[in-house]
Amino acid sequence: MAIRIPFLKSKNRKRSTIQTNESLPGHVAIIMDGNGRWAKKRGLPRAAGHKEGMKTIKKIVKKAVELKLNVLTLYAFSTENWKRPKSEVDYIMKLPSEFLDTYLQELIDNNVQVRTIGDFSALPVHTQKAVQTSIDETAQNDGLILNFALNYGSRNEIVGAVKDIVHDIEQQQMSKDDINEEAISERLYTKDYEDPDLLIRTSGEIRISNFLLWQIAYAEFYFTEVLWPDFDEIEFEKSLIDYQNRKRRYGGI
Ligand code: FPP
Q1: Of 50, 72, 152, which is best to mutate to test ligand 1, by the most ligand atoms within 8 angstroms of its C-beta?
Q2: What span, in angstroms and rounded, lies between the C-alpha atoms of 50 and 30?
Q3: pTM
Q4: What are the contacts of 47-54 at 24+ separation with CB within 8 A?
Q5: Spatial distance between the Cα atoms of 75 and 34, rounded to a whole number of angstroms
Q6: Residue 131: phi, psi to the nearest 5?
Q7: Nearest protein CA to atom 24 of ligand 1, as residue
Q8: pLDDT, mean of each 10-residue run, the chain (253 residues)
Q9: Within 117-153, where are the H helices?
């Protein structure tokens, strides 16, 4: 029997207030999808969708700061996204500097710490510089961790952890019996963060697309048809209210 996943319709825009005294997720991970379709619907180039998507990031970060979430991980560029036309890849790679040029001071003022996961070294140098500046400039902050997944692929990350373990065994720094979940977790990009409590994907696609496969073992999933550029504070709150209504059992009863 097919299981239908009920989408939360965006028509009902009536503001429902979030209960901040009820448990909020510590770590929210988001697959920001639908920029291209948003632009196409308006007869605009795909780049316009990505630019609009950047504005959404600002709104969501602001709300995450306000709600005192610990970590917000945003899937900005996957290891598979290199397959896109070069002009689109080049455009996306310019977005971090555009975003951070205009927004870094606000991030600093809001006590946000910028971080990344993914293979940073394979990004264009200008992208690396922009992101590294924001990491350095926000390193002293201790508020929200704003974690951009850039050139990130979960399988690749797990392969890296396996290689690292084999290396450590060969160097006799650990033995086969030391291999456990913790040994893997501490070799992932996300080693310093709690696992995501809530995974959101926008745009109606119901898949994970190689994002945080190990880390989302017990995450709650929230899929919405709203395209990323249309996702806003109210839609974000809806996802959090939905999360608050879930019963997390972690395999128990
Ligand atoms: C998915 O929509 C979106 C992306 C692959 C890129 C997302 C990037 C940003 C929103 C900006 C990143 C900015 C910073 C600061 C790192 P899609 O293009 O797959 O949309 P479609 O499925 O409708 O075609």
Answers
A1: 50
A2: 15
A3: 0.93
A4: 47/88, 47/91, 49/228, 49/229, 50/88, 50/91, 50/92, 50/95, 51/95, 52/229, 53/228, 53/229, 54/95, 54/98, 54/99
A5: 12
A6: -70, -40
A7: 36
A8: 50 60 91 98 97 97 97 97 96 93 94 97 96 97 98 98 98 98 98 98 98 98 98 97 88 80
A9: 125-137
Return the pLDDT at 19: 79
Can you tell me which residue has the tokens 């395209």?
227
Neighbours of 201 (CB within 10 A): 23
Could you identify the residue written with the tokens 């929200």?
Answer: 144
Assign 150 to helix, strand or coil.
Answer: strand
- Class (C level, CATH) for 27-155+195-244: alpha beta
What would the two tokens of residue 249 be? 């059992």
33 is catalytic: yes
| 123 in Cβ contact with 89 (< 8 Å) | no
